[in-house]
Amino acid sequence: DIQMTQSPSTLSASVGDRVTITCRASHSISNWLAWYQQKPGRAPKVLIYKASNLENGVPSRFSGSGSGTEFTLTISSLQPDDIATYYCQQYNNWYTFGQGTKLEIK
Amino acid sequence: QVHMVESGGGVVQPARSLRLSCAASGFTFSSFGMHWVRQAPGKGLEWVAVIWYDGSTKYYEDSVKGRFTISRDNSKNTVYLQMNSLRAEDTAVYYCAREGDGGSLDYWGQGTLVTVSS
Description:
The complex is a heterodimer. By secondary structure, chain A is mainly beta.
């Protein structure tokens, strides 16, 4: 099984900051990685697929990069609406989610 | 537009069974793989099961293998999750989700809460 490890678990940042979340896979997953945003009481929403492809309708301040075992989600300029928990998910070898990164406003 | 609605959740005693349904609309259901993902209260997302577009392949997370069964009826645009031998640790919100062309889960239902308790 492939394990996904996100860091940090919690992140506090100010509006306008550049924010980076990291996801590491226990084995190479090529670029079969997605990022999701989940707000309290809501279903998750996909932001990025195939590691770096922006889902339709997602603001361009979100971007993804990486391949193999190390991936990043970057928010170029943090907005109040971005407060949420973010999850990575691999789909190279069936499916596994990371444990989540809770993003808070400082 | 794409819409998915889960139903069938509720309170159930340990060792009992429950069947969840997810009714889909707004897309060609028979062309897409469908997933179940769950989230225990205050916890992260956990992938549960997948069924391919034609029902030919199914795969399960280890902790539900042998207890849960995913199925679909393409004539009714519905995917199901039959949950047997339920345990307290199965308590969660259960989401159905569509697997998009890029491989990610691009549309999700609103979720249905399953509580396993005596």
